[in-house]
Amino acid sequence: MSIVVGFVPTPAGEAAVTAGIAEAKLRNEDLVIVNSAREGALVDKPVAPDDVLAQAARRATDAGVKATVIPGSHAQRILIQADRPVLAVKAGTSGT
User: Fold this and answer.
1) What is the CATH classification number for the domain harbouring 27?
2) Among candidate residues 90, 17, 84, the one with its CA nearest the CA of residue 48
């Protein structure tokens, strides 16, 4: 089983990657970073530039976690219909 993180280039997205890396390390699992569309867009479109996505994946690799980046935009459906545990993460008040 992989750990899946919905990522947008915001403090909340960075917090999600941080939490995902920690969870992947804890469970010895791979991390899948989903380049999510903002604000519930109905079409899949990348919102994070390639260099930002590469940096997120590099953070995981530097932490010893194998990471893959894919596009997607179905966060609400995943939260509601997932048959596995789901962790929703907010950015901290300091932006992390």
Assistant:
1) 3.40.50.620
2) 17
